[in-house]
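Cross-posted from the bioinformatics board.
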Amino acid sequence: MSPEERLASLGIELPEAPAPLGSYVAAVTSGNLVFLSGMLPLSMGKLARTGKLGDSLTVEEGAGLARLAAINALAVLKAETGSLEKVKRCVRVCGYIASTPEFTQQPAVLNGASDLIAEVFGEIGRHARAAVGVSVLPLDSPVEVEFVFEVETD
Amino acid sequence: MSPEERLASLGIELPEAPAPLGSYVAAVTSGNLVFLSGMLPLSMGKLARTGKLGDSLTVEEGAGLARLAAINALAVLKAETGSLEKVKRCVRVCGYIASTPEFTQQPAVLNGASDLIAEVFGEIGRHARAAVGVSVLPLDSPVEVEFVFEVETD
Amino acid sequence: MSPEERLASLGIELPEAPAPLGSYVAAVTSGNLVFLSGMLPLSMGKLARTGKLGDSLTVEEGAGLARLAAINALAVLKAETGSLEKVKRCVRVCGYIASTPEFTQQPAVLNGASDLIAEVFGEIGRHARAAVGVSVLPLDSPVEVEFVFEVETD
């Protein structure tokens, strides 16, 4: 199955690639690496939730939001490359998790993104990763996730 | 206009490339990517301000400091490459914004850096970007900004 | 001396490459860059310490933990490349330091990692770097360090 077919089999329809929040772009390709801007858990162009882990959100809710950020990332990646079949590897994922000072389950939250990438891309979806707890994120988003993908170049 | 001419037309004179604060260097070139160390808003080799957004600094002051960090970045980049005309693309900008837990306008702060890069480089200055709120930064700096540039190799 | 010989002369025996905490891998090679996952200060597969800088840990203890994270990174890098002699450059180090809002000596903490890399690799160990204070890290780890290395490709 192609990544697009796997998305369909998961019942996921990619949204429109989200618009940047400032004077930048959603993706830059340099050589065969695609760097994505920090992705937020947007739904219909709006944050699905606000708040912090350890406070108003459970780990499961956080993981769902990380998954949503990853879906937005795939929408941007497809807009940048034309097709997810161009992906040769998911290289790096960095997840910033808005956390109270006592919340330490950032990896379980970020798994929401990592697991989706693995479901869609299989073996080439396995990536290097950092999960970090931060005090606050843009628009009070609970999560923000950066991605670097390696793609085929023409 | 060359990037150096655009800087001059903006009335910006690049400072000396700032010295690192520890056992590392300000820039590393690998292939045609230049990775810069986290840039602080230094003026005459000292932090222009300390403190956090949401507390002692306004969004406008924060954006000015992000712009100053970007000016320091261009000084480092020029020292590394010899000329800003070598730049083919600004690839990635990651802005860490020291924030109180309630401050959520990190993108507006980081625009100070992004806008300067766009003014100096035009279309090739458009970059992927992440803006993150963090609890505290080195020397109590309000902002720290990482950059990756793609450059011509000889 | 080879990097492995320098490690031996420092009395450092590389541990087993630490297992990832989630659905990802410890290292990904893309072209001649190796991206490592965020490294924690693991000893015998467990965190050597928990807590935050500015609270329960001194700067010296934090630097020791950053050094330990770097030792784990070298174990992962060796497992990925086969030999540390494949390393052509340490490109980027990003240190996330769990900090109270008043603690501002993140660079001194991260020097524990940077200094080890310099001791093991000499001139090619000099890297671009960012040190950031964050509110909390996975498992309450005091430090987490990301690395990018450039390596020889066959």
